[in-house]
């Protein structure tokens, strides 16, 4: 039987309406799943739903503005929490990737709980979809890294869970999104801790700005090459800022600059991956642009490792 998005929306709107007599809150990451869940719940609850988006300062270029615009256009009652200073302060001096994840996860929950309380919510809407829980016999997937994800807020928040997309697969979620008029820029997967795990070593606002700008160039160039059919669009493609400085030249001067690693991988589900065979002329453009446009970067390297043994992210 083919999936009927319109019937699903009608059914779920009614179900959410019945399930939530009071107020509900949702953490919106700007991705397809949480945005679709937010719009669906908003159809059922109107202003009794609050969608919260946390700007951690570790988001991709233009991401916060895009999410704010989408939620506004779709008339979802929402709040954009600008919390970059808090996240950077909490991350000061931390180099261990797992500690970064825990700090970011905890901070996120703290801010979100505060909002839920202030709003008076007693229900939590989540954009969980079938692949998030179905593998490993219904357990959440086993992972090498403790993945913090906004879809994975702890259930001890004392809020009753509402998961309208729980039985859907990604293509069905996309069909629902289209039927609801959700036009999320379908960006590649992005980890919950954001750019923090793409800065090897201590996270600072300055480093976040560098890796954000370098990543935007990687995205632009690879997407342009994919559009021109010079390379299949990889599963993920981004920049990583390394904690080493190397010697370079700037005019007549010897300078000590920073290094960006370009990572691009092909994968089906992120569980295993091979590095993308990006043509040299595309790498050349990426390298030239990064060293010209991102101050302080004088060296760009391309990561040719597969997963396993490497992972997709560097941390
Ligand atoms: P790795 O680096 O483990 O990544 O090969 C596999 C996939 O998971 C993403 N990833 C994360 N996603 N929180 C997330 O929500 C995380 O902490 C995290 N770490 C990695 C990664 O981008 C890739 O898609």
Could you please describe the fold and organization of this structure?
- By secondary structure, the protein is α/β, with parallel strands linked by helices.
- The protein has 2 domains: 5-180, Rossmann fold (3-Layer(aba) Sandwich), CATH 3.40.50; 204-302, GMP Synthetase, Chain A, domain 3 (2-Layer Sandwich).
- It has 9 helices and 9 strands.
- The protein has helices spanning 5-19, 32-45, 63-73, 84-91, 97-119, 130-133, 170-180, 205-227, 280-293, and strands spanning 24-27, 49-55, 78-82, 123-125, 160-162, 236-250, 253-266, 274-275, 297-302.
- The strands form 2 sheets. It has a 5-stranded parallel beta sheet, with helices on both faces.
- A hairpin with a 7-residue loop joins β7 and β8.
- α1 (5-19) crosses α7, α4 packs antiparallel against α5 and α8 (205-227) runs antiparallel to α9.
- The termini are far apart.
- The structure holds xanthosine-5'-monophosphate (XMP).
- Xanthosine-5'-monophosphate is lined by residues 101, 144-145, 147-149, 189, 191-193, 197, 236, 270, 307, 311-313.
């Amino acid at each position: 039987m083919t999936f009927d998005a319109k019937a699903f929306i009608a059914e779920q709107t009614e179900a959410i309406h019945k399930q939530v007599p009071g107020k509900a809150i949702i953490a919106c990451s700007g991705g397809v799943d949480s945005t679709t869940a937010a719009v669906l719940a908003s159809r059922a609850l109107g202003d009794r739903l609050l969608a919260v988006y946390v700007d951690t300062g570790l988001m991709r270029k233009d991401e916060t503005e895009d999410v704010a615009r989408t939620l506004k256009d779709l008339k979802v009652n929402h709040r954009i929490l600008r919390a970059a200073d808090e996240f950077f302060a909490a991350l000061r001096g931390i180099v261990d990737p797992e500690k970064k994840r825990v700090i970011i996860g905890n901070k996120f929950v703290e801010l979100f709980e505060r909002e839920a309380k202030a709003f008076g919510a007693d229900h939590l809407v989540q954009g969980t979809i079938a692949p998030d829980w179905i593998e490993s016999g219904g357990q959440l997937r086993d992972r090498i890294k403790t993945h913090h994800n906004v879809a994975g807020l702890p259930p001890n928040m004392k809020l009753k869970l509402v998961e309208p997309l729980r039985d859907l697969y990604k293509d069905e979620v996309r069909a629902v999104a289209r039927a609801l008029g959700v036009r999320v820029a379908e960006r590649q997967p992005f980890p919950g801790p954001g750019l923090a795990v793409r800065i090897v070593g201590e996270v600072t606002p300055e480093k976040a700005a560098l890796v954000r700008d370098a990543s935007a160039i990687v995205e632009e160039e690879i997407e342009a090459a994919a559009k021109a059919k010079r390379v299949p669009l990889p599963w993920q493609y981004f920049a990583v800022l390394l904690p080493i400085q190397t010697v370079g030249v700037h005019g007549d001067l010897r300078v000590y600059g920073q290094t960006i690693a370009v990572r691009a991988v092909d994968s089906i589900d992120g569980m295993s991956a091979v590095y993308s065979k990006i043509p040299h002329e595309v790498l050349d453009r990426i390298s030239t642009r990064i060293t010209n446009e991102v101050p302080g970067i004088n060296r760009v390297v391309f990561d040719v490792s597969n997963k396993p043994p490497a992972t997709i992210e560097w941390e």
